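Q: Glycoside hydrolase, please. Structure only.
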Amino acid sequence: MVIAKLLAARAGVAERAVQSRHLRRVWGMPGTLLGTGAWPPNWRDRTHVRFNYWWQAHLLDCMVDAYLRKPTGARKDVVQRLVRGIRVRNLTSWTNDFYDDVAWLGLALLRAAKEVDVVRPKAIDAIARRLRDGWTDHAGGGIWWRRNDDFKNVPANGPAAIFLARLANAGGERSDLTRARSTVDWIEEHLVDPGTGLAWDGLHVHPSGEIREIEKNVYTYCQGVLLGACVEIGRSGQPEVWLDRAARVVTGVHDHLATNGVVKGAGGGDGGLFAGILVRYLAQAALVIPELDPQRGEVGSLAAELVYQSAEAAWLNRSMAVSGPLFGPDWAQPTVDRDARDLSVQLGGWMCLEAAALLERHDVRM
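A: Structure for Glycoside hydrolase:
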């Protein structure tokens, strides 16, 4: 049984901890904020020499979560300042050479516009153009991991599909929905393990367009974005097909990527975000799947169980600093402070708590 408002309170504590430790202005410029890459920060972090573009996108997404949990003018101001900080630090444009990075910022900006009324249409347009242009027929379709590369992977194609589907569902070009469907179909054809139903990482492509090698690593990140894409596309029609795929992913995660209902960690660095991303989209599955098909309530309950169990473990295994809780990269283990320095790891924990608080607000039970 979920205790009323307890999870919201925990998410608020995580929010304050990340803000107090990591948020700094960009080069002293008024009206800007970014998250330092580590805590305690060294000079590279304090001056934002080290710039993890996609970590900042998830920081922005977490602040949108916080605003939805409790809308305030102060939270809206942080969202505005983060958006400006990202643009200032990125120097020349809203995009970079990594299609996954660009898709994550696009998703965060779409949510900031819809939920917080912080609107950047030129940024959304630039990101949409970049993602549309990333599709090629090499290896049968899909977009690249980065420009001028030979690798196509789920971490780029998954968030791109979610972004394009949301753009279409919000009244944009219907062709973007077709692109999103084709992207997930490509993942299903080439990068899903027939044994577990889980997504592999990606594949390398010869210049001729033929597949050279498949990277069969199984990451929590990949399952999160594939699940999120299936759920988002399912909103727009033909839910049976898309929810079948979503249900398969939820079951696969429960059976292969969780221990006692707690999603497995993937270390620090970029891996610090992987489990949080999966839990974010498990929460969406828990909300949306029963709404689209009441006969699939058990799938929603299983997704909710994974969210709640992961959030409880992350909270119980935290360590404490003067500035607030520190989450570890593996929520099932007590946090070791040296493993909790990266912003990515703290965002993963915060994201997990916000996902649980979202389900709490909607009275979703396991």
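A: Brief note, in case it's useful. The longest strand covers residues 211-215.
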